[in-house]
Amino acid sequence: PILGKATDRNLPFTAIGPVAADQDTFTVPKGYKSQPIIRWGDPILPGAPAFDGTKQTAAAQACQFGYNNDYLDIIPITSTSALLVCNHEYTNENIMFPVAATPAEADEQKRIGMNAHGFSVVELTRTGPGKPWTYKPTGKLNRRFITSTPFAVTGPAAGSDMLKTAADPTGKKVLGTLGNCAGGTTPWGTVLSGEENFNGYFRAAGTTDSEKRYGLTDRATSRNWESLEPRFDARSADYANEPNRYGWIVEIDPFDPTSTPRKHTAMGRLKHEGANVQVAPDGRVVAYMGDDERFDYLYKFVSKNKMRPLTSLANRKHNMTLLTEGDLYVARFIGDSPAAQIDGTGTLPADGVFDGLGVWLPLVLAGTSQIPGMTVPEVLVHTRLAADKAGATKMDRCEDVQSSPKTGKVYVACTNNTDRGKVDKEGPTEVNPRNANRDGHIVELTEGLTGDADPLATTFRWNLLLVCGDPAEPHTYFGGYPKDKVSPISCPDNVAFDSDGNLWISTDGAPSTLNQNDGLFKVPLVGKERGRVQQFLAVPTEAETCGPVIHDRDGSVFVAVQHPGEDGSFAEQHSFWPDFVPAGTVAPKGQFAGPRPSVVQVYRG
Ligand code: FEO
Ligand code: CA
Ligand code: CA
Ligand code: CA
């Protein structure tokens, strides 16, 4: 509402070509400039020292911008002030630190890693509309959430025995948030984020059905935090439930630096990619959520209560309770073409389209479990087991899921599934039509059977918008658009919309599939241009493009550049972006002789 009026302009561009995977450059179209707003280690809290990658400490990291920024939003406050909110999914110790010389040094590196996870909230300022932003190192709303930050647990599973540990006999207070991947900003101005690969932080007995289903195993973890904090070793009776306290959707209020962040059990426990909220016509809110694992599921949460207009702080407070109570569903997809026509190659069936109907299968409805033999808290803590029993459709790794603000249609990024069709694994289905699905696809889902896109509907229609890959290959599909006029795209991950309703897709995996750097792509969804994928930017070598934010009416685009140079080592870095300190030289104060995950703005200039 604030952006755009005075500076109404779109983002015209000529697509860039693919950038080879060894290029350590951030590439934008002609007529645009790019500039990092904030980098790993930049100071954001009082007393934070300038970044020194040769002498990093846990104390410094707790007051500096974290590592591996993923979900991102730039929330405008006025035309010259905004809040940057992003999460820090994980750390790449191999390129952050030299090999530890002593046990004490190794422990300090673990503590730095813990303090580089979580969230950052940072105030931004600029000189005028359309100008680039700079961050305020002393902003009053600046905040870090780290692995020791207390989170409150809400919803029907809060306080259940399944969430209690020796350190928290209430089962309602958890320290930290881990593996935060994609997310969404709510209509009431809070930020949601999914705890995705939380299992990798815990050593567990790995013997229960639930532990097996969530990938918890009795192996030393790569970060070995269990050697530092007993709660990361779930083999002990004291902390057997600690992993149950992760895998949730978290909600933070970036506008209140004293607020307690929360984990919402009503939305189920999975390897949550993220959650995006849509408001139904009657005011209830609906959140779409993916579980990013091969052969896992797509979910929907519907709140019990209705959103109130943001006309008072009391109403906002009410809205912040909406995700604590409601119904939880999982999706079943039914193709409309004969199974024999879905041959696993990506060849279109005779009706010319991968499409069909679907049903939202209830797991929890009106406070009642819909799964025989499981209580509501059990359904919410062991949601994957409940969804297995319900008969959900196994998907090719649902990542970001978001509905179009223009049409209400829902877009599901299925990033890839190289196991589809393998021995003992499920073969092709119409909604996941390729065996060894290397490049991923995008599902377009319309709620209801009448086309009215009512998010409360329990049935839907669906079709594949994109079957990704090199358009020269026959197994790809670009919404029917001529394939000689589109950009190659692989492994769709995060999605966003511009104000015209075009879909923007960021990718994670193109270096290994198409030997090109990951990037950000625009695709129109209606009219003659539907399916015309055009690449807007490319990130540096070995990086993933995350958190796209499209302020087209302000002429700017923002992305989080995650894990640049991730396959290098501290001694032999693969990326030097964005500081470009020459290898073998001493970094000037505040810079780093290696890569730094950063939030980048692209603007016209
Ligand atoms: Fe963290 Fe599913 O990507
Ligand atoms: Ca069909
Ligand atoms: Ca992701
Ligand atoms: Ca991904």
TrEMBL record:
Pfam families given in the database record: PhoX (PF05787)
Tree of life domain: Bacteria
Record PANTHER family: DUF839 DOMAIN-CONTAINING PROTEIN, SLR8030 PROTEIN
Protein name per UniProt: DUF839 domain-containing protein
